[in-house]
Design brief:
296 residues; alpha+beta; Acyl-CoA Binding Protein; 9 helices; 12 strands; transmembrane helix; membrane; FERM_PH-like_C; FERM domain-containing protein
Length: 296
């Protein structure tokens, strides 16, 4: 007889699904089930994770759902997240407007939560594009401020390091005014192009410690593996590009790699990701497709 467990799945468009999963379902099965709701074909970029100590814990895709650690240790329904897991150099390689929209929503969430680091000026630019995509052209400050509050583009950490919340809202409104006549699809494309230039875009962070018991973060992305100070995830101490690396090894929470012409680096930790190269040109048809109201 099948074992059934309940869980809540949070989607990228803020919907929440109460799901029943069985002991026969793998993570891939569940990803495919959710993808059908979006009519999503490019499922290979997506994954399911849960949050623990402000870190994303991704579920291995080939493993049965009920064999996952979070189901084993807790009898209450866990909260899971469906999100973009694998990111490459340019979203313009994507074939489908729906996939681009989900990349946009996932990037927005990651920037708002601080999973992708950005300076304040860039954040205000990005926020202005979101407001234009959601509300269309600027009408007045009051309406703009209401939209800023509703769409979650101004994190508390940014307000705390500036003069006031109103100052931050004014900066976003100035950027928003500059987006006049931008269609929704153009806002999405400009947003992702700007986000892709952020140093931490596409990085997955893992807390590690070396043989001297010094803690740090590894940022693994399509660029390579970056090492960050434990207290600063904005500026990497070192970047090891994939072309420099060989003999990556991970077992029993021990991770090591060999770097061409450099010393071998050892860390104790947790996982890994793919790569890509050149960037295609922006496709006007893609912008039109994203702007289409049927693309959710």
């Amino acid at each position: 007889m099948d074992t059934i467990r309940r869980c809540q799945m949070k989607l990228l468009d803020d919907r929440k699904l109460d799901l029943s999963v069985t002991n026969k379902q793998t993570v891939t099965d569940l990803i495919n089930e959710i993808s059908r709701q979006y009519h999503l074909n490019e499922t290979e970029y997506f994954g399911i994770y849960y949050e623990e100590n402000d870190e994303r814990m991704w579920l291995p895709s080939d493993k049965k759902m009920l064999d996952q650690e979070i189901f084993k240790r807790d009898s209450s329904p866990p909260v899971l997240y469906f999100a973009v897991r694998f990111v490459f150099k340019s979203f313009l390689w994507l074939q489908n407007a729906t996939t681009v929209m989900l990349f946009f929503l996932s990037t927005r969430y990651s920037i708002y939560r601080g999973m992708i680091d950005t300076n304040d000026n860039t954040l205000f630019q990005l926020a202005g594009l979101v407001v234009q995509a959601v509300a269309g052209d600027y009408t007045n400050d009051e309406a703009a401020i209401n939209i800023i509050k509703r769409v979650c583009v101004l994190p508390k950490r940014v307000v705390d390091r500036n003069i006031s919340r109103r100052y931050c809202e004014d900066q976003i409104i100035n950027q928003y005014k500059g987006c006049r006549d931008f269609a929704r699809g153009l806002c999405v494309v400009k947003y992702l192009m700007l986000a892709e230039n952020l140093p931490s875009y596409g990085s997955h962070y893992f807390l590690v410690r070396n043989k001297n018991n010094v803690y740090a973060y590894l940022g693994i992305s399509f660029v390579g593996i970056s090492v960050y100070n434990y207290h600063d995830r904005e500026t990497p101490i070192k970047i090891y590009y994939w072309r420099q690396l060989e003999n990556l090894y991970y077992r029993d929470r021990k991770f090591s790699l060999e770097v061409h012409d450099l010393e071998t680096t050892h860390f104790l930790s947790s996982s890994s990701i793919p790569t890509n190269t050149s960037t295609p040109e922006t496709d006007d048809k893609l912008i039109d497709a994203i702007h289409d109201p049927t693309t959710q």
